[in-house]
Every structure is written in C-alpha cells, then in structure tokens.
C-alpha cells in the first residue's frame, strides 16, 4: 500500500474516489434530497478515480 | 453561503492528501538537489501538468473569470495569443539551452551565458516578483474566505499559508509539483460541472451571443479601434504587448514555469513539457473565461428570473473578483459546494507553492550560494533551502496585506510582470540567438528596460492607477496599461543591450557552446515518431490555435 502511495496516479485516483464517495453518501443520507448535480458529479469522479487507480498507463510505470 | 458537514469533510480530505503527499515525498529528500530541483527525475506527464498548474493560481482562476465578466471573450487572448505560441517557442528553441546547459535555474543560465551581475539582478528581481505573486494568491484566498464563508481574514491567511508551508517544507519541489498535478485535476474537474450547468441556465452559447453586446463575444472583430472594445486596446498593442513581449517574457523566462520543464528526466521530455502543457492550456478558457461571460449574461434583463448577480463593492460597482465565488454559491448545493470551495483553495495553493519553491531555489542557489556562503556541504544548502521556504512564506504573508489596497488582482499582477518579465525576454532572445551579446549589454539592457517600465507607468494612468510622475496619457484599462508598459520596457532593453554589446567585449566562442543557438548542436528529431517530435507537435498546436482565433473572431 505504501509503495502504491508513492505513485501519484494512485494518489490522485484515491483522492477522487474518496471525494466521490462523500458526494454519493451525502445524497443517500441527506434527509432533504440532494441535487442531481451531486449524483452526476460523484459518479463522474468515481469513474475517474477508479480509472486512475486501476488503469496502469505507461506514465505510471516509468 | 454556508458550508455543511459534507463540504467541510471534502476540504479536510484535501488538506490530508496535500500534507500526506508532503510526508510521502519527505522520505526521498536526501540532498539539496532533491529538495530544490527534484534531481531531474520527474516523468513527462507530471512535469507537463505541473507546468500548467504552476500558472493556475488564484489570480489565474479567479482573475480570469473576473476578466471574462469584465472584458468578455477578449480574455481568451491570454491563452490563444498570450500563451500557446510562447509555450511552443520555449519547447522547440529555448529548452535545449536551459536543460542542456545543466543550469539549475534561469538566473544560473544567465551567469553561464553572461556574467554574475546579470544573474544577481535577475535573481533578486525574480525573488521579489515571486513573493509578490505568492502574497497575492494568499490575499485572494483570504479575501474569498472572508467574503463568502465569513472566515476571519487573518486566520485564513495564517492557516492557509501554514498548510502550504508544511508540504513544501517536507517535500520541497517534488511535493509542490505532485500537489500541483492533484490541484490541476481538482480545479478542472471541480469547476467543470459549474460551467455545464451555468451554460445550460444561460441558454447556451448562441443565447449568450444574442443577449450580450457583440464586442463581448467577438475576440478580434472590434479591435481595429481601441475605443470599440471593452479592453480599450488596438489589436497591434495586443499582439505586440501581450502576444509577444508579455507572453514570451513570462512563459519563456519565468523560472516558476520553466523550472517544471527543467526537472524532466531527459532533454526530449524537457522540450515536450511546455508543448504537452499547451494542450490543456488551450482548453482552459472553457473553465476560467466562459464562466465570467456566462455570469454577465445571467445579469441581462432577459435572464433576470435566474436570480443571479455579481456582487457589488461598497461604491456600487460590480466586484468582478467575486464572479466565480458567487457562481459557485448560486449553483452548487452542499457536497459539490465543498468541491468548488476546495478547487478555489487548490488554485491558491498551487500558485503559492509554485512561487515559494521557485523562490527558494533561486534564493538558495543564485543569491545565498553565489554571493554569501560558498563551498559549504550539501546538507548546509538543504537546510538553507528549507529555511528559505519558511521565510518565503512569511514574506508572502506580509505581501498579502500590501495587496489589500489593490482592486483587480489580475491587473496588478500583469503590471508586476510588465516591470520584471517584459524587458527580460529581450535579454534571452539576444543572448540565445546573437552570440555577440555581452554581459554588460545584458545587464544595462535589463536596467534600462525596468527603468523604462517604471517611467511609462509613471506617466500613464488607467483606472486611477499609475501616473505617479505626471498623468500625461490616459489609457482605458489597467490591462492595456500593463501591455504598453511591457512593450516599452522590451524595446528599451532590446536596443540598449545591442548598443552596449557592440561597444563591449564578447565572450569567446568556446565559452558559449551549448548556450547560444549558432554554437549548439541541434537535437536530432528525425529519429523519433512524429508525435514525439516537438516541431510537428508544436506546428499542430499553432494551427489549432489560429483556427480557434478564427472561429471566435
């Protein structure tokens, strides 16, 4: 895990995954029904974050 | 605007990540070169994004949105005239000298090409400029937090500066660069939903064009006469002042951005860094100019039902600096509001950390090591570099309080760039491409250029600024004044350098190999695939840039 944290691509992916989870959980837990904007943005961030984590491009292998 | 738990949580997660990056990088810092130059070990994709992100500070994000609202689409000239051409020129022509000379900084290149006094002059003026820029970023953030979140101005300054200090102190340049890449993604992805939803609310680009005055949606059409466009500029002033002098002066000689290319792993990557960075730079108006244009559209009577307005100052004028924060407050609900606020904080940190890391490299290598304490151990310079990081941030804090007296931070910064960067490009242009240029010529050219900048500012007045000698000439906008100041300073530097060089003794050719175009072996591009070669890539970008100018003519 520590080795992966030295990989910037992984760190960026992890950050956006965490933020997306906050956005999506905020929608699920909010009593007043949050905006669709949070859902769409959260979903996009999640896709971006997981892509950064799991798609190991040439750049990160350098 | 009020934040809720989810918003604060996102801000907290961001702080944890940026400080965490500092701690992770700290273990790799063994020498002063690791701390101050990243030991030339950073991959291309990181150097490219850091290159653009170092320029994506608060003044860029907030200032360009403000300019978009104030001047309309003409603000794209800062990108499609004032950036791409210079970035391509840097990659193709100038990086071979910076990288090939093994200089650790731009002032060090000047010492190799010219002499110590030219280096000292550039190092000191650059150091002053970076702390000004850093302080302005800090001021912008604190003012923002005070206005929209009602946080205490002083506490915002000290807490924000403290976080930047922690991660730059721990990980030096590498930490700053890594965080700049994270900040780049956060700014772009965090503000993209705002652009989409606000554009939709304004009825799309066609509706914007229908509702606004035509000079707000045409980049070039109304520049034949300075009185016809909101910037108050003739197109020749723009092309020479911004497109040539300021643009090339900033992108090709400002160590803050050039440093990001100088830490690449090899010459090829160093050359490709500004060219790859030019791709997102070309698209950046979508994130930082379009929101401003949308904001001013939403205030038109036809869209009054949307309920949006740009805040006003105490005197009743539109406070353009608050355009972006007010858009965020208007459109973002809890959750993504935290992302938007974090993106603003990131833009501040990106700009400030970039300035601080450039400042500590220049101060340590080009001032302290060159003039005060030579031949000490590497550990000594590592400790000095870390100490300078702290001092640089403290000076930035003082500067932030000075910046409180200026209205449009972008205009102010352009003015500072005009004084320092405007004349500088003439020195590099002559130094790199005319081997007859001498150290005396470069030094006195810089002095003459800077003096000319100051005098020009002193005899012109725009928006109440300048005219401190005698307000002989009135210019419509502060931005126009900055272009003219830069252009005059460049011309004075250029001709002074030539005249003094012709009457002083140049360096022998042997000492100029690798530093001057005519005495340097040219890189062999033909061995690479076309998309790895800087010339075809650069030409492709230039063609696209010209097309964009025509599309939005």
UniProtKB/TrEMBL annotation, chain A:
Source organism of this protein record: Niastella soli
Protein name: Uncharacterized protein
Lineage per the UniProt record: Bacteria, Pseudomonadati, Bacteroidota, Chitinophagia, Chitinophagales
Alphabetical UniProt keywords: Membrane, Transmembrane, Transmembrane helix
Chain ranges passing through the membrane: 12-31, 37-55
Keyword Membrane: yes
UniProtKB/TrEMBL annotation, chain B:
Keyword Transmembrane: yes
Organism ancestry: Bacteria, Pseudomonadati, Bacteroidota, Chitinophagia, Chitinophagales
UniProt similarity note: Belongs to the sodium:solute symporter (SSF) (TC 2.A.21) family.
Gene3D superfamilies assigned to the protein according to its UniProt record, in alphabetical order: Sodium/glucose cotransporter (1.20.1730.10)
Subcellular location: Membrane
Chief place of localization: membrane
This protein's UniProt keywords: Membrane, Transmembrane, Transmembrane helix
Name of this protein: Sodium:solute symporter family protein
